[in-house]
Amino acid sequence: MTKINSKTALLLFVATIILLPSCIEKPKKVDESISTSKTAAIKKTISNYSLVNSWIDDLQNFRTAVSASDLEKMSTYFDFPIVNDTTQIWTAVYEGIEENKRPKEYKKFFTKEDLKEYHTLLFNEIFIKSLNKVKLEQLYKQNEFTTQNIKIGTSNYYVFASFDKTKSMLQVSIMFSGELDEEGNGISETESAIIYFFKIKDDKYLKFDKILFAG
């Protein structure tokens, strides 16, 4: 048997250590760009919303969702399907549509897919602007808040928001003063209102209840 001296043995050991990593299959490099972008998008979405400790926090989140047209977030404020007969939700969707362009009969239910298609009609520009003018801190402290008059063309309106603690119900009323006379006063015959109701669950989460019309 050939004897290997200590020097040769040491050289063989070092060579083995050097060559060993190249023999081991390296793990495939993960494309972190996709994962990072998705994580960033999720964090950005979450950062837009407040931690919900009370119903006023959830109202603020709802306001953010409708302003940003965040359909996934908006859908959390509904228990689908919504029954039209008891909520008048389809009437609200077609409120600003000409009579001859409305369907002869409304669908019995309003689904998540319907929200995706009609959310800009249900929560239109007037609704969003109206809700954004409600001072949430005052509403929370006093359980009601009324905005100043807002003028649109020849019509003006204001918003009345109130919270009924005994019924656990939030009400957001868009009150249209209607057309103005020559002196700038509202003509009572043209006054109307759209009233949105939200149930408060567990003292802090908003859920759509119904819409009523007046005038």
User: Strand portion, in percent?
Assistant: 15-25%
Q: Average the pLDDT over all residues and give the rounded result.
A: 83
Kindly name the structural category: alpha+beta
Major sheet description: 6 strands, antiparallel
The dominant shape is globular
Share of helix, binned: 40-55%
The rounded Rg comes to: 30 Å
* Number of helices in the DSSP assignment: 9
Question: In total, how many beta strands?
Answer: 8
How would you describe the overall organization of this protein?
The chain is of the alpha+beta class and about 220 residues long. Helices cover about 40% and strands about 25% of the residues. Strands 3, 4, 5, 6, 7 and 8 form a six-stranded antiparallel β-sheet that branches. Strands 1-2 form a two-stranded antiparallel sheet. Strand 4 (about 150) and strand 5 (about 155-165) form a beta hairpin. Residues about 15-25 and about 35-45 have low confidence and may be disordered.
Q: Gist?
A:
The chain is α+β, with helices and mostly antiparallel strands.
Outline the fold blueprint:
Layout: H1 6-23, H2 32-47, H3 55-68, H4 71-75, E1 82-83, H5 84-87, H6 89-93, E2 109-110, H7 112-122, H8 125-132, H9 136-142, E3 144-146, E4 150-152, E5 155-164, E6 169-179, E7 192-201, E8 205-214
Antiparallel strand pairs: 1-2, 3-5, 4-5, 5-6, 6-7, 7-8
Protein name: Lipoprotein
